[in-house]
Amino acid sequence: MAAMREALRLACISRHGFGSKVGLQAVEPVSLPVIDLGLLGDGEHSRSRPLVAREIGRACQSLGCFLVKNHGIHESVMRGALEAASDFFDLSAEQKAELESKDMRKPVRYYAGYKNTNEARELLKHYAHPLGDWIRCWPMTPRDYRERMGRYATDVRKIALLLMDAILESLGLGPAYLKDELEKGMQVMAVNCYLERTQPDHMVGLAPHSDYGCITILLQSCTGLHIFDKEGESWKEIPKVPDTLYVHIGDHLEVISNGKYKRLVHRAVLNSEKRISIASIHGLSMNEKVTTAKELVDEQHPKRYKESSFQDFVDFLSSKNKSTNGRSFIDSLMINGP
Ligand SMILES: O=C(O)CCC(=O)C(=O)O
Ligand SMILES: [Fe+2]
């Protein structure tokens, strides 16, 4: 009887839909390119650098994501960040509620999805760059949260800058392209905690979406991230590969590249254990407009996106469901519509 109910339930859930209801249907792990960052960091004249940049470009253009190894972040720093996050979510509901807000504009915000929705997710979102400006707004408890998360934030940002440099190079944009803007850019950390999957499982993780920034670097305690593979038209699971970090493309890189590199639609599902993920989102600063590189616009490739800033994204989120007709942020930027 239970098996029949399960079979019926699986048959009811659309296999490829973008719907937020995520069942237990089998989702294959995806095979991801693994980029050796050790070969990128050797300075601009390293012989391997152009090859690695090309490899990154290929990954951006095909799947829209890849893993990085030899990234230089010590295992203890990554473990420390995951533990600090876990310790924060272990605090009492009252303690966490002190940071609770529905205001998307707040630089530090706690949100418990299970309170009002069927999302079994808690989120602590905080700005992280410039770190000195924001860290004093981060949670004061657990006592070592700021130190442990701060160390990871600093390290992961270095990787983001290195990767953005290589990604822009792979687009044929000069070595100084957006260098200053990225140096001054935003880093937002979405620290997520998903409850373990229980039966009956009417709860979901995180609904399908793309991230607003240029790139997202994700650290996870166990599997639960799915990406939408456009070619296979199916969801695929991101494996957890020891010592690697996972990277995917956000809306603003799609805009810069005039659609050559597409944002990656992804979702999170529940695991049989509590899951922590830390998504570090990197882009230009609050009021800096992101525009399509003019080098990538010509008669055959007319400009496809309007310019926008991080502030525009936050405003968009704040007005969602009021005036956006269910459209995503990137849809709202497309000159000829989605
Ligand atoms: O938990 C995950 O794996 C994904 C999190 C995510 O997509 C986000 O925070 O934007
Ligand atoms: Fe995301």
From TrEMBL:
Answer yes or no on keyword ATP-binding. Answer: no
**PROSITE patterns from the xrefs?**
FE2OG_OXY
The molecular function terms in GO held by this entry are: metal ion binding; oxidoreductase activity
Matching entries from InterPro entries are given as:
DIOX_N, IPNS-like_FE2OG_OXY, IPNS-like_sf, Oxoglu/Fe-dep_dioxygenase_dom, Plant_2OG-oxidoreductases
Fe2OG dioxygenase domain location = 184-284
Q: Which UniProt keywords apply?
A: Iron, Metal-binding, Oxidoreductase
Q: Which SUPFAM superfamilies match?
A: Clavaminate synthase-like (SSF51197)
**Pfam families attached to this UniProt entry:** 2OG-FeII_Oxy, DIOX_N
Q: Which family does it belong to?
A: Belongs to the iron/ascorbate-dependent oxidoreductase family.
Instruction: Give the protein name, as stated in the record.
Output: Fe2OG dioxygenase domain-containing protein
